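I am still getting used to backbone structure tokens and would like to learn alongside you. Would you supply a protein for us yourself, any chain you care to pick? Start from the sequence, derive the backbone structure tokens from it, and show both lines together. Go ahead whenever you are ready, and we will take it from there.
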Amino acid sequence: MEKHPAELYRHHVRPFMKSKLEEFMILGYDHVSEQELWTYLLKKKWKSKEKLMIYKMVSDIMSVRAGEFMNFAAVESYKAPNWFGSEEGTKMLEELL
């Protein structure tokens, strides 16, 4: 799979992502990882594969709202395969019961 153009600048915008994650922690969303935030940005803010400018990427990162991100995370979790139907999930459920 071809890399998204934003991947070239990921290390440049990392401090801004950390700042946004700290903001989420202050708001009580301390379970959000850097990778989850990056996935959100790639899928929602930077869908098109046009060339991105660093200042635009920073603006997009800093404008992410916790509610927008949590809505995205909820929808993505519904799209994920049924974990309880897997062999590992079944074993864990049996251990709990």
User: Anything to note?
Assistant: The chain has a mean pLDDT of 89. The chain has one domain: 5-96.
